[in-house]
Design goal:
Layout (H helix, E strand, L loop, with lengths): L1 H14 L28 H5 L14 H19 L3 H23 L4 H14 L1 H4 L3 H26 L7 H36 L14 H22 L1
Helix pairs in contact: 1-3, 1-4, 3-4, 4-5, 4-9, 5-7, 5-8, 7-8, 8-9
């Protein structure tokens, strides 16, 4: 299931920012030929075709295969570490986070529609994943969104410039719909740590000073949110 969903996620991430429709039949990016059923099998079809279109010989973007593998590994890891309903919900959480993480990493874009889908799914489905009640998840959504919105507002007032994209508070609010307010500080700590590591690794690269370089915080927030699911029970158990 992860491989199949990964195929759709890769198509969405490639087409949506370019203004292309994600509906309709899949087609070759080179010649526009609609793909046949045997050419749509995740990973295997590209390997069989040696990474090229059978008609025009155009190279198949390896991004497809990488996203399919990542999506498949999300499912494998989730069900291996959390068998049963909690594992399936954790996998779903990862599959919903993956396109948001990729879009932010590639385009610094967190679409409101994807964040809304993540939030709605969390409010309706996420309870059994960590055993968090609906009220706690509502509080998590409000607290996460308001905290990041307040930070963005304070930065703008102090520096006179935007220090955070408008999609970040909405994404964290949607994540709160899954994790609840209790686990949210751990998620934000992990996301901030990831951002600091990225900043240190990027130091000295590019022609802009580090303070003026955009950071894909949504990428780190998505990765941290998914990692928080198995880590949070360890913190609760040790307290």
């Amino acid at each position: 299931m992860g491989l199949i969903l990964g195929s759709f996620i890769a198509t969405l991430v490639l087409r949506w920012p370019a203004g292309r429709s994600v509906r309709g039949r899949s087609q070759c990016d080179g010649c526009g030929r609609p793909l046949r059923a045997w050419e749509l099998v995740p990973l295997l079809s590209a390997l069989w075709a040696r990474g090229k279109c059978a008609r025009c010989g155009a190279r198949i973007d390896p991004f497809h295969g990488r996203v399919e593998i990542a999506s498949g590994l999300i499912g494998v890891a989730a069900l291996a570490l959390l068998p049963g309903t909690a594992g399936w919900l954790w996998a779903l959480f990862g599959w919903l986070l993956l396109p948001l993480a990729l879009l932010d990493a590639r385009h610094f874009w967190l679409p409101d529609r994807l964040s809304a889908v993540l939030a709605i799914a969390g409010l309706f489905l996420a309870g059994p994943m960590l055993g968090v009640g609906l009220l706690d998840r509502w509080i998590g959504a409000l607290a996460g969104g308001l905290v990041l919105a307040a930070i963005a507002w304070a930065y703008r007032r102090l520096r006179g410039d935007d220090g955070m994209g408008g999609g970040d508070p909405k994404l964290v609010a949607a994540i709160g719909c899954w994790l609840g307010w209790q686990a949210l500080p751990l998620m934000l700590l992990l996301a901030s740590f990831g951002g600091i590591l990225w900043a240190l690794a990027a130091q000295g690269k590019g022609d802009r000073p580090l303070a003026r370089r955009p950071v894909p915080f949504g990428l780190f927030a998505c990765a941290a949110a998914w990692a928080t699911v198995p880590l949070w029970p360890l913190f609760v158990g040790s307290s």
